[in-house]
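Dock manganese (II) ion; give full complex structure.
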Amino acid sequence: MTTHKIAVVGGDGIGPEVIAEALKVIDAAGVSIERIDYDLGAARYLRDGTVLPDSVLDEWRGVDAILLGAVGDPAPGVAAPAGLVERGILLRMRFDLDMYINLRPFRLPPRINCEVIRENTEGTYAGEGGFLRKDTPHEIATQGSVNTRFGVERCVRFAFERASRTERRQLHLVHKKNVLTFAGDLWQRTFDAVAAEYPQVSTGYDHVDAACIHFVERPERYDVVVTDNLFGDILTDLGGAVAGGVGYAASANLNPDRTGPSMFEPVHGTAPDIAGQNRANPIAAIISASLMLEFLGEADAAARLNAACEHPEQFQGSTTEIGDAVAAKL
Ligand code: IPM
Ligand code: MN
């Protein structure tokens, strides 16, 4: 049996509580892991100023995967500077470890069974821009969107590969090419070029605003969706909301080339209002763990875990009770 080396970041708020349940079900599924805990997040930052040391990032290059709960404000009224740990931990990890795919599946039978492939290293998240004449009446702020042919193509190619393996074999590009004429044009041309290599995949395009309506009114329209970083961020919160709530929404930040580890995390945040009360729903963290097992080649354990979580609404009770109930089904 292979033992997988997993870096674990429980993080802040409900993060450690839901990760404890994810680890419990991994164990119940019979998968062996060597767990290395990292105390990182807003609480750590507020304690000693540490965000993400270079030495930790280097250690992570040698692990098989990272399992993360949530990082951000740890409790009501306790705030680190806005976005500092989110950018310093999540974005830095995604960029520096080249996790260029953010894969977020949504399932709520019978109408919703889709996944969003979000580009995870470019777009408006790349930090291009700045201030001019800050704090004067003539202040200027620009925030650019970085779209490279290389970055877009590897993301689109990953999406076609996924779509070629689903039952419906359908892929939609979501963008706003009627207004974002430069970035949208690059995305559409790249999409069309790669589409020629996948004649078995049927393709479509929706503007992001229309896609929001479709997600709510006719989610069965979508099988696989590929989109840029910011649209993907927004669309996947909506996806979580329509597919039963963010308590069920899981995600995989993938480095498909395996030049570094991939990171698995629930889409929900730290939920400081319910932290420490054993009330958080651990299903999103558990499904994220199942995505991790799949990526680590533990196909059988991942399939059993997915089957156990098939109707997540069956699990009621406290965080630990839900974890126990899923573990009992394995
Ligand atoms: C997410 C989060 C992050 C993002 C934040 C916390 C930086 O919202 O993973 O969707 O915007 O990517
Ligand atoms: Mn988000």
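Observed: The mean pLDDT is 97.
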